[in-house]
Amino acid sequence: MSKSSGRTEKGRVYVKQGKGDKDQVVWLNEEVLEVLREWKEMKPESEYLFITLQDNPINPRYVREMVKRKGKQAGINKDLHPHMLRRSFATGLYREGKNLRLVQKALGHSSIQVTEIYTAYSR
Fold first, then answer.
1. Widest CA span of the chain, in angstroms?
2. Which of 15, 42, 51, 95 has the fewest Cβ atoms nearer than 10 Å?
3. How far apart are CA 17 and CA 6, in angstroms?
4. 63 and 49, same structural domain?
5. What pLDDT, on a 0 to 100 scale, did the predictor assign at position 122?
């Protein structure tokens, strides 16, 4: 994600042209927002928010490998990948009693039917 494609404000990051070339809002807690602000200050010359040590944008494969590795370090024996974390987030919200429309909004889904698939394991 390029720095110019997203702006942070009040617990949210507004991402221009996210998945499916649509704008979306990503909710973040204050701790994560603060880390992002500090990172931007440390690397003001970088065009991208998430970069390698060589200042290149990280690729999705690297993210998948990192999540898998961190999962193993945490004792998770499943083949963990980022999408599982997204599903877990949705399931957690739904199990906490959040309504389906709120979960839909949190995930940036345009269709409630897609959100229902994510939360089907909770029912």
1. 47
2. 42
3. 9
4. no
5. 64
| Prediction pTM value | 0.70
Q: Which pLDDT tens digit goes with each residue over 73-118?
A: 999 988 899 999 989 989 999 999 999 999 998 888 889 999 998 8
Q: What is the 3-state secondary structure (H, E, C) of the chain?
A: CEHHHEEEECCEEEECCCHHHCCEEEECCHHHHHHHHHHHHHCCCCCECCECCCCCECCHHHHHHHHHHHHHHCCCCCCCCHHHHHHHHHHHHHHCCCCHHHHHHHHCCCCHHHHHHHHHHHC
| In a shared domain, residues 88 and 113 | yes
Q: Say how many C-beta atoms besides its own lie within 10 A of residue 49's C-beta.
A: 18
> Whose structure tokens read 């599982």?
84
- Residue among 115, 57, 111, 119 at smallest CA distance from 94: 119
Q: What tens digit of pLDDT does each residue of 42-70 get? A: 877 778 878 888 888 888 899 999 999 99
Domain, as residue range, for 11: 1-57
